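Weekly structure sync, notes
Attendees: PL, DS, HV (note-taker this week)

Item 1: Purine-uracil permease NCS1-like
DS walked through the input record. Source organism listed as Melia azedarach. Sequence as pasted into the shared doc:
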Amino acid sequence: MESAKFDEFQPDPTLTNEDLKPTTVQERTFSWWEMASLWIGLVVGVPSYYLAGSLVDLGMAWWQGIGTVVAANVILLVPLVLTGHPGTKYGISFPVLARSSFGIRGAHVPTLLRALVGCGWYGIETWIGAQLTIVWKGMEGIRQLEKYSAPILIILTSSFLLWAYVKAGGFGHMLSISSRLSNSEFWSLFFPSLTANISFWATLALNIPDFTRYAKSQTDQILGQAGLPIFMGAFTFVGLAITCSTQVIFGHVISSPIQLLEQIGGITTTILAIIGISLATITTNIAANVVAPANALVNLSPSKFTFRRGALLTALLGIAFQPWRLLKSSESFVYTWLVGYSALLGPIGGIILVDYYLIRGTKLSIEDLYSLNPNGAYYYSAGYNLAAVAALIIGILPVIPGFLQKVGFLETIPNALVVVYNNAWFFSFFSAGFIYWILLRLKGKQDSEPFEEPLLPSAT
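Item 1 (cont.): predicted structure, written out as C-alpha cells:
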C-alpha cells in the first residue's frame, strides 16, 4: 500500500499527521467534473455577484466590467494550473509544497499569510451568512457538497435571471448603460481593477494543491479548472443583468441579492432564497476560505491541530477581521481589500513556481519534505530558505506605501508607487520570482538536487 510505502522512511512526527500525508490512489476521487463543480460552487456566491456591479458602480460600462473579470481569470488560470501540478503529481498539500521553496520551518511564513487572508474572506462570507458543519466530513464531504450543489446552483441562478428578464422586459436597460469614464480615466481604473479581480481568486491560486492532490490525473485537474473564466464571466453577467433590471422593476438599483429577494417577497421566493444563498455561501466559504487556514494550522502543529480544529479556529478568527468594514463600499472592497492582499499572495506564488519549475524541474523528494535532517534538500538554514524569505520581503515592500495611502495613513506618495500598488499582484509576483531566481543563481547550484521521488503511481 502507498501509505505503508510513505511510512517506510519514518517521516518526522512533528511534520506530518493523517491530514498532511500524501494522498493515496484510493483518495484520488476528483474527476474533471468534480473539479469543475468545485469552481462552480466557488464562483456562484454573493461576492462574485457584487464584483462586476462594483466596477460599473465605479464608472465602467457593463461590457467593460465583464471583460475585465474574464481577462483577469484567463490570466489567473495559468498559475492555477501550474501550481496545481505538484498537488496531483505528488499528492501533497500547499503547506507541504511550500516546504520545498521556503524550507521545512520557513513554510509557516507563506501558509500563515495565506491563512490570514482566508480568515478575512471567511469573515466576509460569514457576515453574509454560512455554516461550518460540512467540514466535519473533511475533503470527501466538500467533494460531495460541491458535486451535487453545482447543478442546483446553476438552476437557481438561471431561474433568477429569467425572472429579471421577464419582469424588466428584457435587458435593454443594462445594455444601454455606457461608460462614465474618459479614455484615460478608464485605463487608470482598468489596471487596479484587473489586479483586484486576479486577487479575487489569487488565494486559490496558491493553495490549489489542497484540492488537486485529490484529482485522478493531471488531465482532470487541468480540464476541471479550464472553465473558471467562463463560469466567472457568466455569473458576473448574471449579477450585473439582475442588478440593472432592478432599476426598471423597482425604480431604484438594488445591488444586494439578499435585499432584492426580501423586496420580491412571497413564500416560494423566501424558500428558494434560503436554499440558494445558503448553498452558494457554504460552497464558496468552505472550499475557498476554510481549507487553506485549516491546513496551515495543521502544518504549524500536526500534533495539536486536525483539519476540524483548524476549521473551527478559522471561523473564530474570521469575525475578528470586522468584515462589515471591508464591505462598506465598492472602493474599500475592490481597492483596499482585494488589491491590498494581492501584495502578500503574489510574491509567494512567484517564488513557489520559480522554485518548482525553473530550479527543480518539477522534481521533488517526498522523503525530504517530511524530514528535519540537516542534510535534507529543504532544510536550508535551520529550516528556513533565506533566499525565499528575502525575495518575499522585497516583493512586498514597494507596495506598502500605496496601501498606506488607501487606508489613510499617508496623504500623498510618488506616482510611481501608485502605479506599483495598482498593479500589486503583477509587480510582486514577477519581482519576487525574479529576485528569488537571481539569489539562487548567485548562490550557485543547489548543494543536493533532489531526485524525483513520487511515492504514488504517476497521475499524469
